């Protein structure tokens, strides 16, 4: 039996990180009872489904799965331990619930390239799979369960903190969200270790400091202490330009292997610059490449500051305005992290 695992909420500026875990009946059982398990064959990446369809499938998954669970990490914990450790913690919390349900499994497949269970007794059972939420039904179900539960949470937050638009952007760094943070300040649900959020926090402060929604009863958020001047460290034997070129080449090869067509590399005008522009199906991606010797000073997403985010948005809009042939494609902003050995750590979207 396969235990499928997927995460939701890695990139938002506010709200929890949630990992879903799911064990489903076998495909053979579903094929023998097609009417009962019609939902099984409708499972796919949660981002490709409408909210109504996700809700419908969520109910069927909770009824028909052999076991399902979600592991949550709060914004407070994310600020304390960082995104990478938060992913591992959320995964351990989800898997613990599956184990407590006493449903056996022989294999764990995690969507993406990062093994969240490294260093645990379950590590030897884990494999990772890019686009697993499209290829493995258990991962698809895990992504839907995690997405629905997190979205419901963010909608509840919109009632507690009206005006921020949590019900619309579910915590992601949209233009609306950034404007509302500027106007109202931050809530305790905002991730102050993320640099765009931190910049606003330093200017505006935090709203409703003493309120908290988490179960642990904590009423404060720790003061983050990142070193924003120590984000990128260049290798001694390469110039900054050479480092950037090598990093972009690594990411370009990854995207091509994933089926992207690279349209432009290091695209520059007098007004803006874009590291990589790629096309995949009916979507166009604008990727910012971050090189780091190590992760001593945090995750790459934490250092895409508010100014950089706005620059990326402006660049994408300006590019599409001057390249009418791509104007019908759905645009996405993305960040890629390349480590000191010029190996891609991860590539992920800034917006859904």
Order of helices and strands: EEHHEHEEHHHHHHEEEHEE
Average pLDDT, to the nearest integer?
A: 85
The total beta strand count reads 10
The CATH architecture of the largest domain: 2-Layer Sandwich
Quaternary state of this entry equals single chain
Biggest sheet character: 5 strands, mixed
Describe this structure in words.
This protein is of the alpha/beta class and 352 residues long. The chain has three domains: 2-156, Nucleotidyltransferase, domain 5, CATH 3.30.420.10; 160-227, no CATH class; 240-349, Trna Endonuclease, Chain: A, domain 1, CATH 3.40.1350. Helix content is 38%, strand content 20%. The chain is built from ten helices and ten strands. The protein has helices at residues 27-32, 51-64, 75-100, 132-135, 137-160, 166-169, 175-184, 195-204, 240-257, 306-322, and strands spanning 2-8, 17-23, 67-73, 107-111, 126-129, 261-268, 273-280, 283-291, 330-338, 344-349. The protein has a five-stranded mixed sheet with strand order 3-2-1-4-5. The chain has a five-stranded mixed sheet with strand order 6-7-8-9-10, sandwiched between helices. Helix 2 crosses helix 5 (137-160) and helix 7 (175-184) packs parallel to helix 8 (195-204). The longest helix has 26 residues, at 75-100.
């Amino acid at each position: 039996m396969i235990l499928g695992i997927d995460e939701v909420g890695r990139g938002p500026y506010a709200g929890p990180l949630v990992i879903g875990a799911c064990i489903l009946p076998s495909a053979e059982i579903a094929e023998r009872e097609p009417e009962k398990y019609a939902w099984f064959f409708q499972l796919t990446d949660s981002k490709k489904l409408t909210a109504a369809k996700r809700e419908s499938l969520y109910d069927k998954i909770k009824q028909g799965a052999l076991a399902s669970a979600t592991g949550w990490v709060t914004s407070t914990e994310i600020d304390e331990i960082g995104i990478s450790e938060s992913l591992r913690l959320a995964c351990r919390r989800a898997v613990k619930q599956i184990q407590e349900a006493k449903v056996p499994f022989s294999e764990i497949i995690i969507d993406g390239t990062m093994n969240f269970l490294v260093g645990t007794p379950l590590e030897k059972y884990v494999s990772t799979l890019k686009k697993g939420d499209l290829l493995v039904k258990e991962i698809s179900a895990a992504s839907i369960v995690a997405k629905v539960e997190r979205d419901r949470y963010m909608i509840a937050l919109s009632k507690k903190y009206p005006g921020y638009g949590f019900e619309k952007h579910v915590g992601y760094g949209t233009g609306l969200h950034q404007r509302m943070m500027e106007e109202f300040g931050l809530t305790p649900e905002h991730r102050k270790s993320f640099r765009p959020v931190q910049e606003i926090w330093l200017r505006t402060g935090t709203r409703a400091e003493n309120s908290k929604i988490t179960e642990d009863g904590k009423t404060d958020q720790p003061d983050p202490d990142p070193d924003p001047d120590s984000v990128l460290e260049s290798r001694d034997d390469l110039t900054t330009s050479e480092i950037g070129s090598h990093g972009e080449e690594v990411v370009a090869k990854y995207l091509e292997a994933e089926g992207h067509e690279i349209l432009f590399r290091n695209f520059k005008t007098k007004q803006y610059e874009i590291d990589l522009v790629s096309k995949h199906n009916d979507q166009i991606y604008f990727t910012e490449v971050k090189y780091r010797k190590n992760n001593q000073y945090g995750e790459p997403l934490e250092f895409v500051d508010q100014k950089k985010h706005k620059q990326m948005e402006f660049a994408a809009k300006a590019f599409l305005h001057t390249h009418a042939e791509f104007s019908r494609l759905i645009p996405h902003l993305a960040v890629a992290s390349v480590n000191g050995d010029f190996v891609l750590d991860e590539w992920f979207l800034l917006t859904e």
